[in-house]
Specification:
- By secondary structure, the chain is mainly β.
- It is 15% helix and 48% strand.
- A five-stranded antiparallel sheet has the order 3-4-7-11-10, with no helix packed on it. Strands 5-6-12-8-9 form a five-stranded antiparallel sheet, covered by helices on one side.
- It is globular, with a radius of gyration of 16 Å.
- The termini are far apart.
Length: 154
Amino acid sequence: MDINSDGIADEVYVIDYPNVDAYPLVGTFSILEAPPYNIEIVCNSTINGISYYPSNNTIAITISNSTSTQTYGFCRLTIPHEVMAPPYNVTVDEKTVTYDTVFENESLSIIYFTYQHSTLEIIITPEHSSTITTLLLLTLTLISAIITKKNAKN
């Protein structure tokens, strides 16, 4: 259980006695390929789609709540600086959200952010990315998600 919605379980997880994880992450691990690098994502939401657009260094993630009672979600991304250098601009449904830098060195950043739940689109861009490019990408991602959802229903 994750009472404070920080992505870390508030109860110890017993792997097999005496091996325990005192601070287990509460989420699903995914990898987004951005050749030759990978972006690692830990998220407690259902990921409906993940894309990386190298032409403008943009990560787009479409998510929905994992259960009908889930009201908050989190994402933790490990982003190699060769893919996208900090600082970042993180938006959730076109609203800028604050992220925390969990770890950073010369080669990568680990960022963490939370959001109130529904079906959402998360966009991560370098801070200097143009607004027009971001809006265009949002539109293309939304169209792609709608087509994917329609195809899944058929």
